[in-house]
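Fold this sequence, please.
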Amino acid sequence: MKKVIVLGAGLVGKAMAIDLAKSFDVTATDINGDALNSVAAHGIKTKKADLSDLQQLAELIKPFDLVVGAVPGFMGFQTAKTVIEAGKNMVDISFFPEDPFLLDELAKKNNVTIVTDCGVAPGMGNIILGYHNKRMKINNYECLVGGLPVVREWPYEYKAVFSPIDVIEEYVRPARYVQNNAVVVKEALSDPELIHFDGVGTLESWNSDGLRSLIKTMPNIPNMIEKTLRYPGCIEYLRVLRESGFFSYDEVEVKGIKIRPIDLTAKLLFPKWKLKPGEEEFTVMRIRIAGTENGKEKTYQYNLLDRTEKSTGTLSMARTTGYTCTAAVHLVAQGSFNRKGICPPECLGEEEEHFQFVVKYLKDRNVHYSVTE
């Protein structure tokens, strides 16, 4: 039985470890003892470790056949680099801000497969686009996606499944999209639109930097955009916080002590953004792909509305993100997907059998993407 290590035992890391333990010998590792206890309660092996200590990390992963990355984004790049240097295959959801292709040469030299950004979006959106890009000439790609609490609670009407710093990163990182073959850069939270979703109601979309690798790997598509969804009204207070400097990484001095405002903000917001026990959330996504297929104009629309799994309490964002990643783990572990180097998820979608495997894998776990033409 193949040995898999999951780096990070947060809400998504835990869901992935539980899912993978059905097929692999799994160990979950984290610095947080409470998170590890939560995973261990499911009979999964755990190991406490400081994953920011790269020497410790390199030692830790030696006995394993495959590594799954679920660390916060700011740790992701160095973590992936350490895994590559150790000669291990990896599937990662850390969404680090650095360009993953900076590691491509190193990964090829070490003969390893590194699937990056393999969550829901980026992740499943890329897999779907990769599939259709091989089968039609695409003119437009639009992905709208968000994870939200069912109960809208003042003041934030938002809860975070990921590390707060990773969420705040979406509000500060400039958003890139492609329009008429040109890359357009706008500030995050720009161009808000109100959009109705069946089963949810009206949400607000705004520019976020979710295209990531697609800008490089899909130069043939003239128009591509990804927007994040929140409850209406959220943009205004986020802009106020951002413009006031609360999301800044630049140190300020307070009573002789230097601190980064972002660290204080994350510390203050984390308890407010944490889902309370029994609180439910949902993930909503709409993907539109338009172009020409077999000489005819064609538009495909994929819809996802996924909710917290009531029987287990597994959060929707953990399921939709985590199970896309664990599906990819199976493809890499079986040797079915064996391309070397940095492989963003759109590469996974190109082959019919890989695409169908991921769709079925998600469906078997009650994550359903409905598609209309």
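The mean pLDDT is 96. The chain has 13 helices and 18 strands.
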